[in-house]
Amino acid sequence: MNAPEALASSRQERLTDTRFTVPGIKCAGCIAKIERELPKLDGIAAARVNFSAKRVAIEHDRTISETSLTEALARLGFEAQRADVNPLGADDAERKMLMRALGVAGFGMMNVMLLSVSIWSGASGTTRELFHWLSALIALPVIVYAGRPFFASAWMALKHWRTNMDVPISIGVILATALSLYETATGGGHAYFESAVMLLFFLLAGRALDAIMRDRTRAGIGALLGRMGKSAKIVGPDGTIRDVAASELEPGMIALVAVGDALAADGEIVEGTSALDNAMLTGESAPEAVGMGDTVYAGAINLTAPIRVRLTHTAEDTALADIARLMDEAGQSRSSYVRIADRASRAYAPVVHTLAALAFVGWMIAGAGWHQSLVIAIAVLIITCPCAMGLAVPTAQVVASGALLKRGLLVKDGSALERLAECDVALLDKTGTLTLGDPRPDLAALDRSARAVALGLAQHSSHPLSKGIAQKLRAEAIEPACVSSVTETAGSGLSGEWNGQPVALGRPMSVAQGLATELRIGDARYEVRFKDALRSDCAQTLDELSALGIKASILSGDREPAVRAIAQQLKLDARSNASPTDKLDALSALKQAGRAPLMVGDGLNDGPALAAAHASIAPGTASDASKQAADAVFVGEHLMPVALALRVARATMRVVRQNFAFAIGYNVLAVPLAVFGYVTPLIAAIAMSLSSLVVVANSLRLRGAAK
Amino acid sequence: MTGLMFLIPIALLMGAAGLVAFLWAMNSGQYEDLDGAAERILIDEEDAP
Which of A122, A188, A172 lies closest to A685, judged by CA? Predict the structure, then answer.
C-alpha cells in the first residue's frame, strides 16, 4: 500500500521548480509548443506557461542545470531568462490582499444596500430596527476586514505626525460607523452603514487597479543583474585551483577563466588568447579577440579558449561596478519627481479635515445640535473623499499600459507614463536599438545540403556567429546534417567530417570586410557575410516621432564611420564614440537646457544614460542592467512601440488631466452643498461613487489608444 | 412580513456563496493567467500518442 506514496515522495524530492521569463510567447501555438515539447526531454516532468506574465514554470530533475533549460527553450525558438524564485512575492501578496478585501466589501455593499433600499422605500417600526441591526451585523465585520489597508496606512501616517489620503477616509468611515451604531442602538431613523461600505468598496477598487498595474508590468521584466561572474577560479602559487567569491577577490590574483565563464573582476591576460563577448559592457555583440597583455572587464564572457588573467580591479572597483554606481546615482536624482496624484492629495487631505471640522463647529454654533452637525460633517468627509482623484491616475495608467502591452511594450510603473508624455527630444543608441543588435547571416550563397552542413557544425558552438547561423537555419526548418567528430579550435572555428569529406566553418582565408565566416565542404568554399540590419520600421517610427514634435538624434558609443552611414540613411544628427560618461553629460546638458530627453538604448554602457534621462526605453534584447534602468521595455523586431509609447503616454496624460478636471469640478460643486447641509451621508456616498465611475469610464477610452 | 424570514437569509446565503466562490477562484489561481485561458482554447488536442 505504501509503495505509490513512497514513490511519489521520492519523485517530489528529485524534482524542483524553475521559472523563466520568456517574452517571445505570443500565441496559442507558442503555449502548445512549449508545454508539449519540453516534457519530452529527459528529466523535465512538466512545463506550464503563464501567458499573461510571459513566464514558463518548468518542473524538472534537480540534476538538470539552468543553462540546459535555457538552451532547451532556445532550441524551440524562445529566448528565455531565469526569473527569480519570486521577486514579486511582496507585491503579489499585497494585490491578493486587496482583491480579497474588495470581494468582501462588494459582498457587504450588496447586502447592506438590499436592506437600505427597503428602509428608504418606507419600512418602519420593528422592521426598520431589524434591518438596521442586520445591516450592522453585516457591515461591522466587513468594515473591519476591508478597511484594514486604509486604517493601517492612516495609523502609520498619524504615528509619524503626518497626514495622507487615508486619514480622512478612515475618520469618515469610523465616524459614520460609530454614529450608525448609536442610531441603531437607540432606535433612530438613519443609519449610514451602506455609505461606509460603499466608500470602502470604491476605494479598494482603485487601490487594486493600481496594484495590478505595478505587478503586471514588473513581472514582464523580472530578470536581474545575473550575468556578472559570481566567483572565480584562482590559481594558487603552488598550482592548485580554488573557487573564490567575487567579493573576496584581490588585485594580483591569477584567475583561470574557462570557456563559457563570465569574468568576475577586471584584469590583464597573462596567458592564452581567446575571444570575449563584451555585450554586457558595450552592447556590441561581435566577439572581441584578446591576447596576452590585453585588459579585460568583469561581466565579459569567455568564448573560445581558456585564459589566465591577473586581476587588477576587483569587487567594488570594477568598471561594471562603476557603471552600476553611476546608474544608482542617476536614478536617485530622478525619484525626486513626485507623482501628480500624491502632490494633489497631500495638499488635499488637510483641507478636507479642516472643512469637515469647520462644518461641524459652524452648525454647532448655528444651534443645529450635535447629531445633525455630525451627520453634516460626515457627509462632507465622504463627499470630499478624494476617490475620483485617487482613481484618476491609476485607472488611466492601467488601461494605457494594458493597451501598450498588447503591442509589445512593457511600461514599468505609472510615473514612467507621466515622464514619457513630457519628453520632447529623443536620443537613440545605434547598435541594438536602431539595428536589430545581433548580426544576421546572409545565407543566399548556400544550397540546401550546404545549409544542413552549416547547421550540423554551427549547433555545436556557443560563438555568437555560430548561434546566429544556427538560429536562422532552424527558423527555416533545416534538418542538421550528421557531422561527425566536430572539434572547435579557438580563433579558427569548427571542423568535422560529413559523408567522408572534411567540412569546416570558421574564419575566412581571405580577409574580408566586416564580419564574415566561411563554410568549407571538401574543396568547395562558401562565404557567409553578417550584417547588423536596421529594424524594418525605423523610418516610419522616426516620421511618427517628428509628427509628435520630437526631434530624434543618434548617440552611440560605436565608431564614427558606422554611425555616420546609418545617420545619413535615416537623415538624423549623430554623435559617435560616446563613452557612458559622455552620454550622461549629453543628457545632463539637455536637461540643463530645460528639455526632457528620452533615451532609447540597450547596452550596459547606456545604463547610466537610461537612468539619467527624463524617460527611457530599452529593447528586450538589452542587457539585464539596461532593462532594469529603463522605464519601458519593447520586445520584437519593430521600433514602432517607441513612438507608440510616446503617443499613448500623451493620450494618457490628457485623460488624466480630464479626470482631474472632472474630480475637482465635482468637488467644487458638491462641497458647498454638503457644508450647507443639503446632502445626507447616503447621497454623498452615491455622488462619490458616481464621480468615481465617470473617471473609470473616461479612462477606459484609452483601450484603443495603441491602435 | 413572514416572507422576510425566508428571503433575507436566502439573499445573505447567495451573497456569501458568491463571495466564497470568488475567494476560492482567486486562491486556486484562476485569475493568474486570463489572457492565457483565452488562447488555450485554440490549442488542438494532440492525437493520442
Answer: A172
Q: Looking at this protein, which amino acid is placed at residue A296?
A: V
Helix (H) or strand (E) holding A673: helix A640-675
Bigger pLDDT: A195 vs A133 = A133
Q: Residues A384-415: pLDDT tens digits?
A: 766 677 677 777 877 887 788 777 787 766 67
State the cell numbers at A148. 484594514
Closest by CA to A164, choosing from A416, A393, A389, A374, is A389
Residues A292-336: pLDDT tens digits? Answer: 778 887 777 777 778 888 888 776 667 666 655 554 554 443 433
CB contact under 8 A, A51 and B44: no
- Write out the catalytic residue numbers of A: 429
Asked if B24 has any chain A CB less than 8 Å from its own CB, the reply is: no
Q: Which of B4, B31, B43 sits opposite A28 (nearest CB)?
A: B43
- Regarding an ipTM greater than 0.90, the answer is no
Confidence (pLDDT) at A337: 36
Instruction: List A410's β-bridge partners, or say none.
Output: A633
Cβ contacts of A409 within 8 Å, gap of 6 or more = A617, A632, A633, A634, A635, A641, A642, A644, A645
User: Are A111 and B15 an interchain contact pair (Cβ–Cβ within 8 Å)?
Assistant: yes
Neighbours of A513 (CB within 10 A): 6
CA distance A138 to chain B (A): 9
Please indicate whether, in this complex, the C-beta atoms of B42 and A103 are within 8 angstroms of each other. Answer: no
Q: Judge whether residue A283 has pLDDT over 70.
A: no
